[in-house]
């Protein structure tokens, strides 16, 4: 991947250009569920352009993508405008004269294999591309103007025929071209340009005049290629630049910073070890925290918290690979990485890096303020190939909760508590306890409802093993997805509590309103409460049945109490009659139970819950009607159970006391 960009869609898309292929776009998060979990390769599609160029989305309209192309199949300064709505593009080539077979010295414009394409941060209708000149369009590519002189050495000795006996002039592999270009986000019309033959120029007057600042760099490499320039968001006179010279045997790290429009440059490489793969490929300033900078070398990503004065490797689980492109998706705060050989990678949520300070690192524990979290709904899935090793990985649909633990605090018991705007605790989670930055995900679910504990074997299936605890957990638990709104996260470590606000946002693609979500949540709460009540009743019945079965075993072993054994079996039969209304007692968990035996109240409540919970819609009239029916069956079963306990069980316990035996307990103590 020669470059990487990201648009401003929600979730956003990643764009880039693949070696020997066109420009591509794919989602950072598909929100799929089921068999298409992840990011299938079929989600990637062409957006015009060609290999090695740029695919740059319009910052105001992610449907529009400007793609550049140079290669053996696309020569010269080809630029296309792709529209996602009809998946078509218009060719707006800067100078539509084929360059195939021609040496560079014969051409009007030298467009290199990977020439820059930039949409102005000040005006999305202003677009720049570069040959040996800077070209600009303000009318959608209908016309282009040249706004710079030749900003290279224009060394004709390096622009001749390529090849020997057989020429190899594919029309893109040129020396003396502008290889990196940026406009200051802080001030319109301030430009920084760097060439692949080691020249750097700055313009402060919208391209009217240009200043050669190449001589202002300390330790400037001979025949270096300016690989990347990032003009600072905070100050028009500030920019970062990386240059590399590995093609002439110089593998050193070259990274620089200017704060005075290039009049002086500071080399910023401290912390990058000397290594044959230490030469630089890309650099990117964080758009939120001043002084937070990311740099890509031939084998890894580095991060600096002090404006590049010191660097440290940020490896995590990334494979060593050339880091050709870096971009920060500002809305989500993700670092998107394009590698030359290992695809695209995303570092989700830069929040802890943006908030990590000396004070935080000196503390025993610290909870970072979380970014806003989108409560996305699942989407229907496409047909995909199973076990496709090219599938990408989706980030969790969750709130990212980040916290810091010191070396002395590492290993402590850590708890995270989520409370809603009313101060009610909706979820408590155990946290990790590693020294440094920890991350826990809250998936917006509340606490699960009461689990059903079956203490007897399924009917007609005595072969089912209850395990050493003589209990098997049967479903029925329901965790309610909490609605969008304001929450508080509390980190508890060693008796100390640290709190931060958390905002949960509605899926912007959802059709339902907040009123619909509230109505949905209210009904789901009622269903969850009914599942709780059903679990309590079933657990109570199972507790009594377990005692009755154990009692019968003892009585039959001792003999002489046949009447009590018969009474116990009769009482259990009455309990089964009630329990069977609530739960199917023949379920063994072998996989086909659901089609063999009828669903009972608990299963039907679960089915109803799944239907009500889909997306962000208010419940239907029929969902409410079915719920009322199931609730009626539940209430009747609860009433019948209490009546049985008050009568039959009480009578049976009287018989046990008369025989000097302990009575049965009606619920677990």
Mean pLDDT: 94
Shape: elongated
Q: Radius of gyration, rounded?
A: 34 Å
Low-pLDDT windows of residues: none
List keywords for this structure.
single chain; 669 residues; alpha+beta; five-stranded mixed beta sheet; four-stranded antiparallel beta sheet; 7 helices; 37 strands; 19% helix; 28% strand; elongated
Structural commentary:
- There is one protein chain.
- Helices cover 19% and strands 28% of the residues.
- It contains 7 helices and 37 strands.
- The strands form 10 sheets. It has a 5-stranded mixed sheet with strand order 29-37-36-31-32, with no helix packed on it.
- The chain is elongated and about 115 Å long.
- The mean pLDDT is 94.
Write the layout of secondary structure elements.
Layout: E1 4-6, E2 13-17, E3 23-27, E4 45-46, E5 55-57, E6 64-71, E7 74-83, E8 88-91, E9 117-119, E10 127-130, E11 134-137, E12 145-146, E13 178-183, E14 191-195, E15 200-203, E16 211-212, E17 225-231, E18 239-245, E19 250-258, E20 266-267, E21 280-285, E22 293-297, E23 301-304, E24 312-313, E25 323-329, E26 334-339, E27 344-347, H1 351-355, H2 358-362, E28 365-367, E29 373-375, E30 399-405, E31 414-420, E32 425-430, E33 436-442, E34 452-454, E35 472-474, E36 485-493, E37 496-506, H3 514-558, H4 562-582, H5 593-596, H6 601-612, H7 621-658
Helix pairs in contact: 3-4, 3-6, 3-7, 4-7, 6-7
Short description:
The chain is an alpha+beta fold and 669 residues long.
